[in-house]
Amino acid sequence: xxxxxxxxxxxxxxxxxxxxxxxxxxxxxxxxxxxxxxxxxxxxxxxxxxxxxxxxxxxxxxxxxxxxxxxxxxxxxxxxxxxxxxxxxxxxxxxxxxxxxxxxxxxxxxxxxxxxxxxxxxxxxxxxxxxxxxxxxxxxxxxxxxxxxxxxxxxxxxxxxxxxxxxxxxxxxxxxxxxxxxxxxxxxxxxxxxxxxxxxxxxxxxxxxxxxxxxxxxxxxxxxxxxxxxxxxxxxxxxxxxxxxxxxxxxxxxxxxxxxxxxxxxxxxxxxxxxxxxxxxxxxxxxxxxxxxxxxxxxxxxxxxxxxxxxxxxxxxxxxxxxxxxxxxxxxxxxxxxxxxxxxxxxxxxxxxxxxxxxxxxxxxxxxxxxxxxxxxxxxxxxxxxxxxxxxxxxxxxxxxxxxxxxxxxxxxxxxxxxxxxxxxxxxxxxxxxxxxxxxxxxxxxxxxxxxxxxxxxxxxxxxxxxxxxxxxxxxxxxxxxxxxxxxxxxxxxxxxxxxxxxxxxxxxxxxxxxxxxxxxxxxxxxxxxxxxxxxxxxxxxxxxxxxxxxxxxxxxxxxxxxxxxxxxxxxxxxxxxxxxxxxxxxxxxxxxxxxxxxxxxxxxxxxxxxxxxxxxxxxxxxxxxxxxxxxxxxxxxxxxxxxxxxxxxxxxxxxxxxxxxxxxxxxxxxxxxxxxxxxxxxxxxxxxxxxxxxxxxxxxxxxxxxxxxxxxxxxxxxxxxxxxxxxxxxxxxxxxxxxxxxxxxxxxxxxxxxxxxxxxxxxxxxxxxxxxxxxxxxxxxxxxxxxxxxxxxxxxxxxxxxxxxxxxxxxxxxxxxxxxx
Length: 822
Hints:
Structural class: mainly beta
Helix content: under 10%
Number of strands: 45
Largest sheet: 22 strands, antiparallel, barrel
Distance between the termini: 24 Å
Strand content: over 45%
Radius of gyration: 29 Å
């Protein structure tokens, strides 16, 4: 390559392609250390490949700072050859580069204000040179084309603010055109906040209460959406648009394997069939990428948390027909509870075959092994209520150390297929097989402390479970225009076949345990057979949807679905057997309207329905009807064109009917006369202030109550949820303070008090406020971060306390992360 005539000793060249990178990285590093400058490397990639590089757009997040380092990082990420003298750049600063750009546009932004420009060379590389001080009138500058990449509904979120979704419609739809509230959390937000669980990732999302795990925060992903529990058992969790997991004991999803998490709020059976009325959560798996991706992370944190993770992806051939991704993680960790652990192995390979722009097939597989504990609860006296013997420490383990494990092995394999027959007709077909086994040994408290104030009764339990799920979804999307009206019609069906087998044991006898003077059993805990549980479900649903757009101003969404569910359950005890075999069917619908104003405002209104099968019978042996959900919602979105801002405000009225309550004639049976209503207001803001500050704000007001019940005193009670949730998160790059490589973030989460429910009985905890913080530093391909959650180490009770038993919230967690990307 021809060198610029003004260069002195050497110049820097960044690698033009992945092929040349491996052959030059070691040599370049050695010469850089010896000479103090980078070494120019001859290009080995074809000239055509270089020529095409400038046409490719990519997303960058290069902070303001020293120009040499920024150019080195840009060259690696863009895959171009960039030649320059370090003497020319070492004393200069850059404003950084954020967003999606082509090479020419990106270089122009990086070099703004430096007096330098990048000249395109014949071989496709770039040469840095000083801008001329004067220019003849007949000189023509090369054209700089500024281009952008449209976000994909299943790809990375560009920053904090998502613009598209597929969860709400099963089509790639602008989020502002959806007449129903939906929140999207992308990879960057998860990384900045160092989310270790789905609950962590959704902690700053409007409409969600994330501290209400129905079983245990270490083993399941339960949250509350608009006052109703959302968990795998009631059909609230989906992955890549297909049902994921079948019960509370299938474990937690590894968030490092996720590209985005989307929460569709309100009844959603129109697309997903049987589900709780609060909404559904769809997680999106990391998928193969076109640009090369290489990342290694090392973490160390509280409770001796040690984690190594890696993410690699990119094309496998020059034509880009084959691409891959492999995401892996290994963790060894304790927990804030004595004798606890949170170990995990995770690996997820993915392969995409895309022979043309019209056809793609992505194979997805995963294996996850988790070794943790079912953390024992604590009595209400000594945690939520005072105890004369003192406060029970949060780390106190109330159980037996030799009877203490929750081990799961989960495997999945499936594919996502898509083919466009034309510009207006598209086929999608997806399939997955899921399998999980569980070996659990745990201890439960049977109630509050006894009269001594010191002792609780412990009951040891055990589960041996096997779960399998086969699920598939097939649909056709047809687009056509009639005058100024555009129709996008979706017709499809989905099918799920699941089986859950569980053999359960129970301790031969309960024993008293002194919570202030713990004495643990050292040998095996005697266990007796309790029961065998077999549950099978076959669900088939047909759906039809029309997205109608009139004059690019009005969007009408209409849809309907028919579901048929065959349910079988069998519980075998030593002397009894209870079986249930039946079928349920339901029709659900949705209708919505959005107005798209030119200034970015989009008011909307919608009505939507849901249903859930109820696997019980009344005193006459008649099978219960499915419970039903109906919601009316009005809202307003504001997303100014060309900005990183999305504001959503929504008001909703959500009702769940056919709820089972106590039979007034025979109290051992139930009847379906209950009703729960939830009304609320949600405000959510995601924006970028300038080029440096990301902001997330959310406020939730929930008025949920039992409106009908046969249980004495239950009607009129508030239904579990706090009235007010408020959160605010800000993350800023500190170049404005002459700290170009640094960033810092801080957040606050407020939860108001939860209600008491004497009819159950249950107690709600007092209000609490949690604070989180982070600080980050970037040095070329290296980045470092320190995250702290619950900064002030607040002791709090996040969930309802049932039958004299409570659970503490997570104490302060500190995590340090070192990342290398190249």
